[in-house]
Amino acid sequence: MNNHDLMGYADRWSTKQGDEIQFKVHCSSTLGYNVQIGRLWGPLQSDGSHPCHFEAIDATCNGIYPAQSQTTLCGSSAVFPSVSIDYRLGFTLFLFFCPTLLQHTHPQTLSYIRLNNSTSLTLQVSLAGELELLIEREGDHQSTSLPIKLAKEWYACGISFCFASGSLTLWCKSLYRGPNIPAELYVKKGFPTGDPKLVSELSITVAGLPKPQAVTRGSYLSFNGLIEYPTVFEGVMSPEHLKQISKTDFSDLLLNSVIASWDFSVGIATETVFDRSTNAAHGKLINQPARGIPGRNWHSDSPSWISDPNSYTAIHFHSDDLIDAEWEDSFSFLVPDNLPSGIFAAKLSCEDTHYFIPFIVRAGTNKKSRVAFLVSTATYIAYQNHRSRYFSSANERLHGRLNILDDIDLMFIRNNQFGLSTYDRHADGSGVYYSSASRPAFNIKPGGRLWNFAADLLIIKWFRDIGMPIDVLTDEDLHREGLHAVANYDVVLSGSHPEYVSYVMYTSLEQFVSDGGSFMYLGGNGFYWRIAFHSSKRGVVEIRRTEGVRSWDAGPGCYYTSFTGERSGLWRANGKPPQKFLGVGFIGQGFDISSYYRRTSTCATAAWVFKEINSDILGNFGLMLGGAAGLELDAIDYELGTPENTIVLATSENHSNTYELAIEEVLTPHGATDGLLCNKIRSNIVLTRPFHDGGWVFSAGSIAFVGSLAFGDTSNDISRLVRNILMMFLSKKA
User: Fold this and answer.
1) Lowest mean pLDDT among 22-36, 176-190, 665-679
2) Which of 166, 179, 385, 685 could form a disulfide with 650, with the two C-beta atoms 3.0–4.6 Å apart?
3) 215-229 burial, b if ≥16 CB within 10 A, otherwise e?
4) Which of the 8 DSSP states describes residue 340?
5) How far lies 159's CA from each of 67, 171, 478, in Å?
6) Domains of the chain, CATH where assigned
7) If DSSP codes are grouped into helix, strand and coil, which group holds residue 67?
8) Considering the entire predicted model, what is its pTM?
9) What gap in Å lies between CA 579 and CA 641, rounded to an integer?
C-alpha cells in the first residue's frame, strides 16, 4: 500500500482528561485500517517500528475501521448570500481586480453568478490568460472573451446582463494603460426573453466556484490575484456608464441602484465580508485568503491597515489556499480521567503502511510534575507540509551535499493538494501567510528526520530515561491562557526549535520568570518570528516575513497581521530581541555537520553546572549531524540586550564553511561570513537572570543540542550538564 493512501488529522492538538478528540482519516484500501492509541516516548524509526518508544494503551476506539474516501478542495473565495433583483431590469456586477498569475494549469474564476438556479455566468481568466465569460442556461453553453492578454496590474470590470431582454455586456478597462481593452463586447444571441418575473434570486461567489460546483470539478478553480469592491447594481449599464462607475469612490458609494457592495477594508480580522448596502448581504471567506492587503489606491505613507483601513481594500486570493480540509469524522477518542499528561498519537495501520496523528494530553487537576514542557506547536504548524527541501534551488548549497529524497519528500510530491507551509510560495509567487493544523501533515510525525516534532521527542525520551515525570502543554495553550497556563510550575522548558512566538506567549514566559520561575531553552533560533494566532480557529497561525532570514518577503504595506493588526517579522525588529530574555539570539546556520562546545566558564559560582563533567570538550557526539552545536545557532550579544549577569558556560567552535551569518547580522556585504572565516558564528550555552530578583534562564543555543542530550545513556556530558541545571532550578524552588 502506498503511503499516500492512508492519512489523517485531528481536530485539535491539545486535550485534557474528559475531552473528546475527533480524528479524520482517508484510507483507500478495501482492507480498511487499524487504529491504536499510544503514548510516544521518543522518536520512531521511519517505518514506525520502534516499539519501546510507542506504548499502546487501551482505548475503546482501538480496532479496525472501513475504508473511507475524503475530498480536499483547495483555493480561496468569497461567498455571498442571495440577493433579490428585478428580473425585468437585469443587473450589473462590477469589480476591480489585479491578476498575479497570468497563466495557470486551470481556468481561474473571478466570479460565479447564478440566477434562479437556471442560468450561470462564470467570469474567468482563461488558460491563455484572457478574460473569458461562460454562460450556461438549462444545458446550453456559450462563451465570449476579450481578446487581450492580461497583465499584472489593476483592471475595472463589469458584467451587465438582462435575462428578460437577452442582452449581455462584458466590459474591462486597465486602470493604468488608459484606453479600454479593447472596449466592450455584446452577446444577445441565444437568450430568449420568455415571461419576465418580478423578482429573481441572484447568488454570487467571487474568486472561485461555489462548493457544489467545486466538488464536481475537484477544485474551487480559484483566481490568483487581488479583488476589491465587488458591487451589484440594479439594471443594465452601458460601457460608458461602467467607465464612469470605475472612477467612483466606492468607499462613499450610496447610490439607490446598489443592491450590494462588499467592502473588503471592513472587518479585516474576520472571515466576514461586509456589505455596505442597506441589504446587509454579508458574505464569508473560504480557505483564508490574505486580508489587510493594499488596494489599488494604496500609498506608501499607509504602512498598516490599523491606521488607514481605507487603503487596504483588497483581498489576495490563491488557487492553493487551504485552511481546513473539512474532512468528515472517522473516529473519536475520549481522553480517560486517569490518563497522565504526555505526547500521544493515533497510529493508523494498513498492511505495511503506518501513519501517526499526534496530540498532547495536558495535566488535569491531579497535576504531579513541577516541570512543564512547552511543545512548539506554533513552529510545527508554520513548517507543516514544508516543501522547500526538494523545491528550493539552494538545498545542496545549504547542506553541503547532494540531498536524497526520503519517504516524507515523496509523500509531499504525491500529495500537493494538502496546503503549504509558511516557508513556501503560492502558485503566483507570493508568500504563504497562513498555516493550519486542520489538514494532513506529512512532516509532523514521530519518524523520519530529526527536526521539530521528531527532535522534540528526544526531550521526552530523556526525561523518561532519568525517571522524572513532566507535564506538557502547547504554544496555543500558552497563548490562549497566558501566564495561568504555566504559573503553577517551577520550571518550564522549550523544545529544540521554538522559532514562532506570539506576543502573549513571549510576555507570559517573561512574567513567569520575573515571578521566580525558571525557563530552560533547549534549542536554537528561538523567539525569532512574531506571529499571530487566529482568534477562534484552532491551530491557525499567521506570519508576515519582513527582515531576517526568509524564503519570501511580505512586501510594502503587508507587514502587519490580518488577525491582530500587530507588526509581524522578527522579534528583534519589534523591540524584543531574544537576547534580552534568553541571553542569546540567532546568529547563523549550517546543515552539513554539527560541532562541539568548549567550556569557557571558570566562574566559581557556576562550578556546580559541571559537576561530574571531567572534560572541557562537550557534546562532540549526537544524533543530529554528529554534535551538540549545529543546524541553527544562537549567541550572546550585549548590544542587543544580553544581561550583564549572563554566565557563558561554553562556546562552540570549528564550524564549517556551509555555516553562514544570519543576514540581519551583515550590515555591509563582504566575503567573510562563513564558519571558517567569521568568529561570530558560534553557539553560546548560557545562564542568565533577565529580571532583578526573578528566576533563571538556561539557554542551549543550538537546535542540535537535544540530539546530544538523548545520545546513548544519561551519563554523557550534555545530559549531566542539563540535569545539574534542572536539579538546581528545582532545589531553589523547593
Assistant:
1) 176-190
2) 685
3) eeeebbbbbbbbbbb
4) P
5) 46, 6, 49
6) 77-317 (2.60.120.200), 489-495+503-527+575-734 (no CATH)
7) coil
8) 0.96
9) 5
